[in-house]
Amino acid sequence: MAEPVAKPSLKARLKASFVEYPRVAIYTYLVLSVLTIAGFSIAIAIGAEPSSATGVLGVLGAGWLAAKATMPIRILVVLAITPPIAAFVQRRRSNAAADDDADS
Q1: Assigned domain for 24 exists
Q2: How many CB atoms lie within 10 A of CB 100?
Q3: In 82-98, which positions are buried (b, 16+ CB within 10 angstroms) versus exposed (e)?
Q4: Which domain covers residue 63, as residue numbers?
Q5: Number of folded domains in the chain?
Q6: Residue 74, domain member (yes or no)
Q7: CA 50: distance to chain centroid?
Q8: DSSP for residue 89
Q9: Is 103 domain-assigned?
Q10: What is the pLDDT of residues 30-63, one digit of tens each?
């Protein structure tokens, strides 16, 4: 009887996504990370109301730490939304190329 094949790790699936959709996966991950850090920073700042530059840096640092805590969830989201985004980008490129050919 064959042993069941182990499911690839989250890190391995993310690397495979970067190989299959290089730019789209990287941009998706970076945009999602920046939005997460900004969202946490804004939420913390609303509650903390920093009054100095050090306070603002502390809020950004706390936002970054909170975003790091959500990294596994963000990676799952990137894995889920990268293929549809890549398909959308590919479709837009094909339509733009077809429009350019029609104009020629």
Answers
A1: yes
A2: 9
A3: beeebeeeeeeeeeeee
A4: 20-92
A5: 1
A6: yes
A7: 28
A8: H
A9: no
A10: 999 999 988 888 888 888 666 676 777 888 888 8
